[in-house]
Amino acid sequence: MLIEVQDARLHPVAFDLRWAAGKDAELASLPEVAGELRFQGQARPAGEGLRLQGHLHGDIAPACARCLEPIPMTVDRDLDLLYQPESVIGESAEVEIHTADTEVGFFAGAGVDVAEVAREQILLALPMQPLCRPDCRGLCPHCGANLNQGPCSCAPAADDRWNALKTLRKPAP
Ligand SMILES: [Zn+2]
Ligand SMILES: [Zn+2]
Fold first, then answer.
1. Which ligand is the nearest neighbour of the Cα of 155?
2. I want to staple 35 with a disulfide (CB 3.0 to 4.6 A). Which of 11, 48, 59, 90 is the partner?
3. 152, burial (CB in 10 Å: exposed 0-12, middle 13-18, buried 19+)
4. Phi, psi of 53 (to 5 degrees)
5. What are the tens digits of pLDDT across the range 108-153?
6. How far is the CA of 161 from the centre of ligand 2 (A)?
7. Which residues have a beta carbon within 5 Å of ligand 2, which is an ion?
């Protein structure tokens, strides 16, 4: 849904978008979304651009960085975003208007696509190195077994390392 600056200048534009994982093509690039995603709020004019205030709520399940199991999480955040047309980049004084807790984004064209905004915010909400639990044992590098579910039948890698150390330390004849 594209919100055009000229429309917001006439009156605030309310939006209420919902997507469901697996049903909406717009979420195809976001495999982490596990349930319904809802983004609702209002757009008002701000300088040459728009100010978006709203609420983003959704269920996501990013993969554990070690064992790749999905980790159920909820995104539930208030958003206050400022968007300025790309043409203001360079007119530096104009860009400095943002306050400490308002993020500034830029758009090309007539306005801001709020579906794109929701996608960006979900990506920002994803943890960099999600872990299903702090002591996740990860996958066996040899057979790929999930070591949280018990040891696999591969030889423990630690033994190999100790053997190599013994060889190195063998005194010269
Ligand atoms: Zn894990
Ligand atoms: Zn293994």
1. 2
2. 59
3. middle
4. -120, 130
5. 999 999 988 988 898 888 889 999 999 999 999 999 999 999 999 9
6. 16
7. 140, 142-143, 145, 152, 154
Domain extent listing, the chain = 2-125, 137-173
In angstroms, rounded to a whole number, what is the distance separating the alpha carbons of residues 77 and 56? 5
| pLDDT for residue 27 | 56
- Write the DSSP string, 51-109: EEEEEEEEEE-PBPTTT--B--EEEEEEEEEEEEEGGGTT-HHHHTT--TT-EEEEE-S
Question: Tokens for 37?
Answer: 């995603």
- Of all ligands present, the nearest one to the C-alpha of 68 is 1
Q: Tell me: the pLDDT tens digits for 91-114?
A: 555 455 545 456 688 999 999 999
Pairing of strands 49-60, 2-4: unpaired
Give the span between the Cα atoms of 90 and 173, in whole angstroms: 73
Q: Residue 153 CA: which ligand is closest?
A: 2
- Distance, in Å, from the CA atom of 13 to the CA atom of 42, rounded to the nearest integer, reads 6
**How far is the centre of ligand 2, averaged over its atoms, from the C-alpha of 146 (Å)?**
9
> In this structure, which ligand is nearest to the CA of 157?
2
